[in-house]
TrEMBL record, chains A, B:
<dbReference type="GO" id="GO:0005524">
    <property type="term" value="F:ATP binding"/>
</dbReference>
<comment type="function">
    <text>Aspartyl-tRNA synthetase with relaxed tRNA specificity since it is able to aspartylate not only its cognate tRNA(Asp) but also tRNA(Asn). Reaction proceeds in two steps: L-aspartate is first activated by ATP to form Asp-AMP and then transferred to the acceptor end of tRNA(Asp/Asn).</text>
</comment>
<dbReference type="InterPro" id="IPR047090">
    <property type="entry name" value="AspRS_core"/>
</dbReference>
<dbReference type="InterPro" id="IPR006195">
    <property type="entry name" value="aa-tRNA-synth_II"/>
</dbReference>
<dbReference type="Pfam" id="PF02938">
    <property type="entry name" value="GAD"/>
</dbReference>
<feature type="binding site">
    <location>
        <position position="228"/>
    </location>
    <ligand>
        <name>ATP</name>
    </ligand>
</feature>
<dbReference type="InterPro" id="IPR012340">
    <property type="entry name" value="NA-bd_OB-fold"/>
</dbReference>
<keyword id="KW-0963">Cytoplasm</keyword>
<dbReference type="InterPro" id="IPR004365">
    <property type="entry name" value="NA-bd_OB_tRNA"/>
</dbReference>
<feature type="site" description="Important for tRNA non-discrimination">
    <location>
        <position position="82"/>
    </location>
</feature>
<dbReference type="GO" id="GO:0004815">
    <property type="term" value="F:aspartate-tRNA ligase activity"/>
</dbReference>
<keyword id="KW-0547">Nucleotide-binding</keyword>
<feature type="binding site">
    <location>
        <position position="492"/>
    </location>
    <ligand>
        <name>L-aspartate</name>
    </ligand>
</feature>
<feature type="domain" description="Aminoacyl-transfer RNA synthetases class-II family profile">
    <location>
        <begin position="140"/>
        <end position="558"/>
    </location>
</feature>
<feature type="binding site">
    <location>
        <begin position="219"/>
        <end position="221"/>
    </location>
    <ligand>
        <name>ATP</name>
    </ligand>
</feature>
<feature type="binding site">
    <location>
        <position position="452"/>
    </location>
    <ligand>
        <name>L-aspartate</name>
    </ligand>
</feature>
<dbReference type="InterPro" id="IPR004524">
    <property type="entry name" value="Asp-tRNA-ligase_1"/>
</dbReference>
Amino acid sequence: MMRSHYCGQVDEALLGQEVQLCGWAHRRRDHGGVIFIDLRDREGLVQVVIDPDTAEAFANAERVRSEFVLRVHGRVRPRPDGTDNPNLRSGKIEVLAKGLEILNRAETPPFQMDDEEISEEVRLRYRYLDLRRPVMQERLKLRARTISHFRRYLDAQGFLDIETPMLTKATPEGARDYLVPSRTHPGEFFALPQSPQLFKQLLMMAGFDRYYQIVRCFRDEDLRADRQPEFTQLDIETSFLDEADITGLMEGMIRGAFREVLGVELPEPFPRMAFAEAMSRFGSDKPDLRIPMELTELTDVMKTEEFKVFAAAANQPRGRVAALKVPGGSEKLSRKQIDDYTGFVGRYGAKGLAYIKVNDVSKGREGLQSPIVKNLSDAALEAILARTAAVNGDLVFFGADKAKVVNDALGALRLKIGQDLDMIEGDWAPLWVVDFPMFEWDDGENRWNAMHHPFTSPRDAVETVKADPENAIARAYDMVLNGTEIGGGSIRIHRPEMQTAVFELLGIDEAQAKLKFGFLLDALKFGCPPHGGLAFGIDRLIMLMAGAKSIRDVMAFPKTQTAACLLTDAPAAVDERQLRELNIRLRRTP
Amino acid sequence: MMRSHYCGQVDEALLGQEVQLCGWAHRRRDHGGVIFIDLRDREGLVQVVIDPDTAEAFANAERVRSEFVLRVHGRVRPRPDGTDNPNLRSGKIEVLAKGLEILNRAETPPFQMDDEEISEEVRLRYRYLDLRRPVMQERLKLRARTISHFRRYLDAQGFLDIETPMLTKATPEGARDYLVPSRTHPGEFFALPQSPQLFKQLLMMAGFDRYYQIVRCFRDEDLRADRQPEFTQLDIETSFLDEADITGLMEGMIRGAFREVLGVELPEPFPRMAFAEAMSRFGSDKPDLRIPMELTELTDVMKTEEFKVFAAAANQPRGRVAALKVPGGSEKLSRKQIDDYTGFVGRYGAKGLAYIKVNDVSKGREGLQSPIVKNLSDAALEAILARTAAVNGDLVFFGADKAKVVNDALGALRLKIGQDLDMIEGDWAPLWVVDFPMFEWDDGENRWNAMHHPFTSPRDAVETVKADPENAIARAYDMVLNGTEIGGGSIRIHRPEMQTAVFELLGIDEAQAKLKFGFLLDALKFGCPPHGGLAFGIDRLIMLMAGAKSIRDVMAFPKTQTAACLLTDAPAAVDERQLRELNIRLRRTP
């Protein structure tokens, strides 16, 4: 082989030994008639010294520029006193070259490999150079190591890795599908999967008992926020297990990965919180527990107040009035910040952001500073102070609207203030959120929607669910980490009569159900086992583990916000002949 | 948990113990007032006995029909003397039920799970039932185990599992792409990858050193033979390794999988054979070495014969005359079979199939029976007998045409006769075929084509390749198993000047090259390491390992020959609204 060691693995254990190294010239310095090259490979850097005594190697070294590909052989020796580099594993040694061969040249790259300030456009266009940067190497290595751990864990637990189709049928609900015209069936289209949901349920009906797959999924959404048209899911399904079994297995897997890859011990077991509690305390079904602030319930108190803004919200159906106390907020938050927060909660539909500065609790009403104080009764003010346990210097924000608006607005404000005031405590806060409602009421469409998906099993019997859908609880569970949902799933419906009832409640009639899910309904009739599973969003999980800011930073070849690949220039125009074969034509020439 | 053991794992080690089992009622028999149920899960069958004494269990058991889903708890006891079933791991025991719960009912399935004669259409339509059959369970388990072994091997060797995009750019050469219209870039299309070839080379340029991925690939081909529109590839690329390093690593991986999964020891190392030798001896670049017949070269002998059919073939450029001796063929092959073989070789372009029956070698010309004997000189007949080492009773077939036709026809005939006459010796014959030509002459287009792909490195320097492309040897290697190519790859070109020269020889001009491979040519300029790799066809390999007849039998949800899914009814028509969003319309309504 051309190489005896990776550059980054050469250390004092190899002192005196000969090594063969291959890599890239990260930096070259000429100093005192000697050439120094930092040679880089995926494991790190090593300093190579080329002395004029080794004439051929020296002549070659003189031609070396940044990013030339080199092969070096030489002897490992200690660095001279005082020149150690404690940041490198190889920092105590250097390699005195006996030979140096230029395997390939390089033009001057558009950026240096240790540059931190490169525009994302340049990074994506020259992705093969961007990925040479040590930070990107480490991220993709962390990804590979984590996925490898998942696979080994699941293999050991008897899960079978089974592949499901990519060319499949359009998803009946959910986001927009990517479509693939069929050449052999003119006028018809495959869809790329948004998830293998139905296939994994079919695999349970086929008796495979424990399935997993690390699988690409696709959504043709508008790429707001940090989304990608194709993303990777760890998809899991099991038979004959209940929620406790499944969540136990899964947190064992995540705990193991954190231990093995990051050296971090996560709690055992993960805390569990009901959806209703999460919404009440944090205004979110994926609360970040690292932020020591909670919402305070005031709906009951405000029902009888004269202040219309609060009373109307408290008295409307599905209305809520709640407070968010910011400890020390009177001093820590400027007037400008508070104004900005008013704009911020507006994005979530809140029509304003009332607040009270708590100057001196001993003075009662007089110690509170806010235009709304005069509108509130003594009882209300007392309740606010008592329930929030506010002390002098605190600031209390209020939300009063439909519960959804209050939760979204104060839930987001809680996160924002937590970050702005640097309140985050601890590194990792995993959590299971459970006991989700089966259905959400859709005001616009005036009907029930499935909160998870229409195959989720309710906890109760068919009749109970039909009689009171609003209070039906789903056997669903989400894994939340630091305020991000990293996985979610449920026990599925395994009896045809329950599936039919849920479709009915969702307003999916028999003909629609047959058309969209006919094969699933058929399959339920032939001996479907009780089953359930979940799926993890791998990109987002790895992003959190790697401390990256975007999922693009943990994917080798991501796309831009307009779903394009700057490296290969995809998508691109195609030949008319190809369109003809697929029985399609363009509507307008671009 | 609902279960203490899998059904198929209950054996005499558990005698006297209580077990909890879940599974499907494979068969129910009532005998002597007692009910017997063979309970089935993915690990096998166990016999459950339900006695009328356990009244509730018995009442439930009376309602059980085929494929009902059951939960049973009971005690393991020996079967009565003389009722052992040596075919089952659980064949010496039975479970006396204390409780039996019906978890789900089943309608009468369209076929029994032990039926072997089900039409493929029914199997694919009810795939979730077909997959319950033990033979299908075993195949998919074998697939999962093999893939798991590959991953563990590659992880241990420092390979990084890195994902490449599915929504990518159209492939410049090769088969037809599946296209995906872009909504955000109207009039433009992504293509689904035929392989991640360029991405894996870019990952080497990015310094990842060792990459692998088990990845879905797509080809919109007409599905002759045993092809699928989507198939799975084990894709591998390495830097700083040569052919010997790579093939050594890879055969280690395959040997390990055969050992671990099948308990089979493959030879170490695998034999290696040059392309030229494989074509000469077997008429194939993927010879099945288990068949003890070889082609005999006669081109030189026939050049001076008067017999036009042979002489013309022998004297034309790239012509060949060769023989295939069938030991004992005079008796073993009927006149009808020989006629059928004439038709068979016709499919490969052969215009006829001359043959000689060797009745008595001691009689010279008189001992040979064939219409062509009178056309051949004594010298030619002697050469045929001597070179084929024919003995009495043998039959010798002849091919005379362009070498390609002779090789295709006699190569295929060799396989067919080998199977027809049951000549296959041994179970497993792996082989590396190496030293492929760089280029094949395309008579139709009057130009050179790349035999592998245009990124394959030649063995020689640029000038040598340019001067004599016909004799340029590629640094390519194919892994062949039992006459099937299961993997192939090459050392790639890593210098821009060589890549440009090869493009020129292939008639790809600078503008085309820039358009199609611009990003690769750019990347080559910035310090590309020497690299190479290969890809394995996972479906085909697993098919061979499982002893299945079709790759459809080792895929969970395959498509039909017309690229349709009978289970989900994909592809299907889509809404006009969706087409409008994608800026396409149909040419004609189907």
